[in-house]
Amino acid sequence: MRIQEIIRRPLITEKSTELRDDRNIVAFQVDRRANKIEIRRAVEAQFGVKVSEVRVASMHGKTRRQGRYVGRQPDWKKAYVRLADGEKQIEFFEGV
Questions:
Q1: Domain boundaries, the chain
Q2: DSSP code string of the chain
Q3: How much is the pTM?
Q4: What's the rounded Cα separation, in Å, for the pair 58 and 79?
Q5: What distance in Å separates the CA atoms of residue 85 and residue 88, rounded to the nearest whole number?
Q6: pLDDT in tens, the chain (96 residues)
Q7: I need a surface site. Which of 26, 56, 59, 83 has the fewest CB within 10 A?
Q8: Nearest to 40 by CA among 54, 30, 27, 26
Q9: Chain centroid to CA 73: how far?
Q10: Is 23 exposed, middle or buried (0-12, 13-18, 19+ CB in 10 A)?
């Protein structure tokens, strides 16, 4: 799996913003097949930071209805990445 395919997108929520500000933890949606080692290497390569810890959680896709039709969103995986002490924050919206 290529490094560019592992990280899908950053998760920008209230919880992830608080974690980033208080504990230097950044949240990402990642490929379901990726493991902790691959996630660590992808973050370090793409953002140029040192990672001290990676935690992953598998999320179940939600069931959605539209009238009588029922659909289901796919399952996905998220990763909480703790940056090493002294590392700069990853800025997703620079100059906005």
A1: 3-83
A2: --HHHHEEEE--SHHHHHHHHHH-EEEEEE-TT--HHHHHHHHHHHH---EEEEEEEEEPPPEEEETTEEEEPPPEEEEEEEEPTTPPPPPSSTT-
A3: 0.89
A4: 9
A5: 9
A6: 788 999 999 999 999 999 999 999 999 999 999 999 999 999 999 999 999 999 999 999 999 999 999 999 999 999 999 999 988 888 887 766
A7: 59
A8: 54
A9: 18
A10: exposed
Class of domain 3-83 (CATH, top level):
alpha beta
Structure token digits, residue 10: 């950053």
Distance from C-alpha of 4 to C-alpha of 52, rounded to nearest angstrom: 20
